[in-house]
Specification:
Elements: H1 3-16, E1 20-26, E2 36-41, H2 45-61, E3 68-71, E4 77-81, E5 85-90, H3 92-98, H4 100-103, E6 108-109, H5 112-117
Parallel strand pairs: 2-5
Antiparallel strand pairs: 1-2, 1-6, 3-4, 4-5
Length: about 120
Amino acid sequence: MKTSELLNSVLDELNNLKALNIHSIDVQNLTTFTSYMIVASGTSSRHVFSIADNLVQKMKAGKVAPCVLQGDSDAEWVLVDLGEIVVHIMQPRTREYYNLEQLWSEANQIPKTKLACA
């Protein structure tokens, strides 16, 4: 699967799983460990974990094996590493505290309309 197809598939799944405030960040020119980061929120620890777990299951069913699934015991922040795409799913207060969008502000924020056409 091409990276753009995987990106759109992940974004579709996050929308289907009712993730909130989904942001895609193109980090290809800033780092070598991944091409895109996606940051999304869940409403509770159960929702955050459920989004991550279901995303992993959907990707495995589509023959995309996550390299790493990790998070804290309270599911404040769960990370799904799909190689070319790293997905951060957080509770809102954790997301506000770490502010990954600001940390990666030099990266290109990908407009949602552009992704739909990719």
